[in-house]
Amino acid sequence: MKLYNTLSRKKDTFKGKKRVNLFTCGPTVYWFAHIGNFRTYFFEDILKRVLLYNGYTVKHVMNITDVGHLTSDADTGEDKLEKGAKRENKTVWEVADFYTKHFRNDLKSLNIKEPTVWVKATDTIKEQIDLIKILEKKGFTYQIEDGVYFDTSKLKNYGVLWGNKKPIELKAGARVEAILGKKNITDFALWKLTAPGVKRQMEWDSPWGKGFPGWHTECVAMSIKNLGIPFDIHCGGIDHIPIHHTNEIAQAQGAYGKMMANYWMHGEFLNIEGSKISKSIGNVVTVDNLIEKGFNPISLRYLFLTAHYRSKLDFTWVSLKASQNGLQSLGEKILRLLEGQTTKISAKSKSLPVYQKKFLDFINDDLNMPKALALMWQAINDPTLPNKEKYSLILDMDKIFGLNLDKIRKIKIPKEIISLDKERENARQEKNWPEADRLRGELQKLGYLIEDTTNGPKLKKL
Predict the structure, then answer these.
(1) CB under 8 Å to 394, separation ≥6 — which residues?
(2) Of 277, 269, 273, 284, the residue nearest 318 (C-alpha)
(3) Tens digits of per-residue pLDDT, 263-279?
(4) Which of 149, 132, 158, 147 minimizes the C-alpha distance to 242?
(5) Taking the CA atoms of the chain, what radius of gyration do you get in angstroms?
(6) Is 256 exposed, middle or buried (0-12, 13-18, 19+ CB in 10 A)?
(7) Best-predicted range by mean pLDDT among 254-258, 330-334, 414-418?
(8) pLDDT tens across 83-115, in order?
């Protein structure tokens, strides 16, 4: 099994023990997660499914960021939860609870497996303070007016995830603003002090004064508390590479002298209609928006399967419609397989083990879903593969794809519907078109659609 490791900048052979310890950066629960966020959660779900398919058990920890994530990467601006509370005239706790529940419902809609452990930032304040104390003791911190900062100049390999690229060419006033008293532009907040005259809903006492933890500190404390150090795999979106994950690594190395995780994996961006997702241009799409427009959320999952997780993907409503059509076509083919199955057990096809090996090779080659999906379509259209084996193979593949293909069942049509269908066909044969149309309408009211095909009429459940 090979996985692309951002740390080594190549596909590495995965060397894990029977239980894999996996940490994935979770949502900041101040607003709805959008489909760009869910592309990352989808890739992590595929990773977990592939690990399970290969016989590993997985301890998956995901954090809930309910404090400390500011509106700027520069450790400036409002806390996103405090901002959300003002917007909705609620407490920060109410905001966090509402969007956490909504996020979990969205995961369910997209058939993304929940983590083994959910951990909230606000539940690990003690561990975060303890981590900062260790860093302070080892000389990696300094305090200025607005908080305690990590001195990145004290770490020789700061920015190890950047590779051969220059350290993000950080300039004051660009992506990261200058903060009075910061020693280096790359230094980051470990603990932010509550400003004089400001009353926050979320703040805690600490050795440095009343305040709240920095976003980067939270993930280090939460992951190591639950998975130890080093753990196996740390995942997130590519936007986490230059700052968030870089600063996590810096703290772990400073405090414990170890790399935080052995494998670092990052998913590419999702664009919408050719543009980066942005609230300012109004192109944010949520799972709720998909449902409102009549789409099955699993069709988004199907769309995600068509591109490798390390390749950019452009979402359009046309491409989503095509994915929904593809998913529907797949369901129809599976129904035909079920209808064509016999109780007689045939000898195993010689091509079955070939498909099984190819599938394993594709998913183990850095989660190559486009090739794996194409292979499934090749198998379903292969006349040399008996229906029974074909169906079994597809369900096995769907352990990875997660398209709920095992829920497709033969439809048992009530006698009343069959009778109306026969009446309608008789009317059609007699060229009594008004009666045929009336009966078609009756069937539609009862939830059934008649399609007139070259092979005769077909009855489908709506």
Answers:
(1) 334, 337, 376, 379, 380, 405
(2) 273
(3) 999 999 999 998 898 87
(4) 158
(5) 27
(6) middle
(7) 254-258
(8) 999 999 999 999 999 999 999 999 999 999 999
d(CA 68, CA 59): 26
- Evaluated on CA atoms 237, 241, 243, 246, the torsion sign reads positive
What are the structure tokens assigned to 29, written together? 């629960």
Q: Which of 158, 191, 168 is nearest to 67 (CA)?
A: 191
Instruction: Give the Å distances, CA to CA, from 97 to 90, 103, 108.
Output: 11, 10, 17
> Could you report the per-residue pLDDT of 403-451, keeping only the tens digit for each?
999 998 776 778 788 888 888 888 888 888 898 889 888 888 887 877 7
CA atoms within 13 A on the CB side of 50: 23
CA distance 119 to 219: 10
State the SS3 of the chain. Answer: CEEEECCCCEEEECCCCCEEEEEECCCECCCCCCHHHHHHHHHHHHHHHHHHHCCCEEEEEEEEECCCCECCCCCCCCEHHHHHHHHHCCCHHHHHHHHHHHHHHHHHHCCCCCCCEEEEHHHCHHHHHHHHHHHHHCCCEEEECCEEEECHHHCCCCCHHHCCCCCCCCCECCCECCCCCCCCCCCEEEEEECCCCCCCCCCECCCCCCEEECHHHHHHHHHHHHHCCCEEEEEEEHHHHHHHHHHHHHHHHHHHCCCCEEEEEEECCEEECCEECCHHHCCCCCHHHHHHCCCCHHHHHHHHHCCCCCCCEEECHHHHHHHHHHHHHHHHHHHHHHHHCCCCCCCCCCHHHHHHHHHHHHHCECCCHHHHHHHHHHHHCCCCCCHHHHHHHHHHHHHHHCCCHHHCCCCCCCHHHHHHHHHHHHHHHCCCHHHHHHHHHHHHHCCEEEEEECCEEEEEEC
Angstrom distance (rounded) from CA 252 to CA 137: 14
**pLDDT above 80 for 13:** yes
